[in-house]
Amino acid sequence: MIALTKPDWALWRARLIRWGGIARSDLSLLFSRRWGRWLAAAACLFLIGCLSFWFLFIKDLPSADRLLSYEPPLPTNVRGIDGSPIYSFARERRVELPYGDMPEQMIHAFISAEDKDFFTHGGIDYLSFGRGIFEYFTKMGSGERARGGSTITQQVAKNLLVGDEYSPTRKIKEAFLAFRIEDTLTKQEIIELYLNQISFGRNAYGVQSAARAYFGKDVDRLTLPEMAYLAVLPKAPSNYSPERGAERALERRAYVLREMEANGYINAAQRADATAAPLGTIARSSDRRDAERPYDGYFMEEVRRELLGKYGENDESGPHSVYDGGLWVRTSFDPKVQKAAEQALRDGLVRYEAGRGWPGAIDTVDVSQGWRKGLNSKIVAVGYPDWLGAVVISKDRTRAELGFQNGTTGDLFPWGANGPRRGIGGRAYDFLKPGDIIAVKKEGNAYVLRSPPTVSGGMVAENPHTGQILAMQGGFDARGAAFNRATQAMRQPGSSFKPLVYAAGLDAGMTPATIVVDAPFCVLQSVSLGTKCFRNFSGGYAGPRTMRWGVEQSRNLMTVRVANQTGMDKVVALAKAMGVGDYPPYLAYSLGAGETTVLKLTNAYAMLANNGRKLTPTVIDYVQDRRGKLIWRADPRPCEGCNMADWNGKPMPRPRARSAQAIDAMTAYQTVHILEGVVQRGTATILRDLGRPLFGKTGTSTGPTNVWFVGGSADLVAGVYLGYDKPRPLGGYAQGGTIAAPIFKQFATVAMKDMPVVPFRAPPGIRMVRIDRASGRRVFGSWPTSDPLASVIWEAFKPESEPRRTIRRDELAKPKAATTARPTSGDSEFLQARGGIY
Length: 838
Prior knowledge:
This is Penicillin-binding protein 1A. Pathway: Cell wall biogenesis; peptidoglycan biosynthesis. Among the domains are: 16-58; 92-290, Penicillin binding protein transpeptidase fold; 358-450, CATH 2.40.50.140; 500-585, DD-peptidase/beta-lactamase superfamily (Beta-lactamase); 767-834, no CATH class. It is built from 22 helices and 28 strands. The strands form 9 sheets. Strands 6, 7, 8, 9, 12 and 13 form a 6-stranded antiparallel beta sheet that branches. The protein has a 5-stranded mixed beta sheet with strand order 2-1-5-20-21, with helices on one face. It has a 5-stranded antiparallel beta sheet with strand order 15-14-24-23-22, sandwiched between helices. A hairpin with a 5-residue loop joins strand 20 (620-624) and strand 21 (630-633). Helix 5 packs across helix 6 (168-184).
């Protein structure tokens, strides 16, 4: 900067004064004239108008640069354990497609329908824009809506940046944004945004979802008339729906085809053929049978709850929200196992209530107000795919007319409802009345009445190696109630809790051959409460017996004695460590008086089958974001070198083992080995003919209000209970072995059909010893082991606990005294399969 001296400052001051005077005189001369004042006023108004326009329309306009990083709301896609898609969570059904995957003819159809000059204009069609503004003011107050006159670029601005307010202000903002968008994005990027964003009705957003919703196919398989029909829908999906506006849709489609021909995209022959074609749309998904829909039962609801807990519901919760974050979720859902669990539990519930009579209507509606609307407003849970919800429209002595959700009708004759009405004399048909919503099944040309059970239950199937939940059924039908009895119902497990008591006893030094007295057992509770005496379920006493025998026969008195000798503090500590529940140390809890869920108890049995290693039950294996990046996984163990690119041909790397033990490995195996006897000789012999090594325990709570079975094989463990939601007695004949175990058998027959027959593997240290299961004494001599009812069995012992009491074969009332104490070839195979040492 040049420094100024004092003379310089004085010179510049004099010049400024002179120039200011000239300016003042000139302005005074200008404003002294009338036209000068008008000019000044106009300048001021122009400035004020520009500032107002900027503040009203431009200042708060979003930047078009946001579209460069715009990500449309995408559904969360759920896959099963084999990677197959099974469900999705979304409010807007959308599949995002890049421009290159969109058929050119389909783009031509949309341009012809919406904006034929799209590829040539700069964002606005001035003639249409002006016409739209004019119509707005001429129709103001008439209730009519002016035609939009918006280009595709303006519609992108409206849908993504401005909003759908009906006003000239919005149109002006939309126009300015259209200019910005054209400067920011290419035409291909604009049309890609448009075709992925717009609504087509049927909750379909974007052309790919629309193609699936209306034609059941992807866009690359659409025909010309189908593409033209989709191009009709964005203007007014409800007006051109195939259900209510088929004729209007055909007329509008013909217009689009004519425009395509006029624009040179198709020839006259193509237009004529396409115009003559029918719409060819498929029925709405809500009108199709449930069997054709994706899985949406209890398992998916559990997945949804877990995802909501992790990521929230919408974009306000974060970038990975459930309903619009575009997540990819791999679950442990096994379709085959799930279907087997659903069928087995439903059949078991229906079988229990068979012969009790029809319980009455599921719900009622007023048929005078429109029976179909009333029926569709109700949630009708009928369970089986071939059972249908129906409303009685009318009835006389010879037949009842039924109406169904899809609008069709049918007949129910008296012979189809001749069963008794529960609790009331007479046939069920006599109690039907118009407006009743009932469950029916089609037989021939008529329908027969069916009874959804009032009793309920839950079932879970788990992989005992990983903790993955393969199937989950929380009741007869998930549509009846969101309450998941597999995870939420707290029930008393009864005798199915006993294995934890015996496991605690084994940990405390007992053995499967320990003698426990089956005899009266009473304890003094307190001075005020007096003495508490326990009893066996069937009454009577058996005297001294081995622990194994007590488990197989589910003897309450022997269980209480083991708990008392071991210490209830150790029993409840083990139950807590295995995730079953946190109970007070009272002897009644050794008989299953504490409440738990079928999921928790099944997981505890899975830990036993997993040699005592801790398991966390999971329904989600891992979660990826919309770009495929892994953001969560159930198994967080690091695995160095597991990337296939790093494999050097040596043995494949594996994550380190889950080494945490919930219970001693040898104790766990001894418990499982004892529970194999429950299937072979005890309360679950109904499972013996499945022809594979199985373990498990039945359970019947006081009342009985609940019946249980939990168990399985070395590779699949499942648990099931049955009971009323508001606990009440099931009937004196109800037992876990007669009601719950058959449900498991039906499930296992299907779920385990193609699984390899694998024995339970004994951990290192276990020794297999021949034992007389009545006396608990060690038996020397060669004995057959294939007979499940044999008095001599192989028993699992820890090294320090082998029995010292012995008995030779010739001391028993058995022919052919043994000449050697070495195992036979059959015995050797038995030991080898279990990893035991003779």
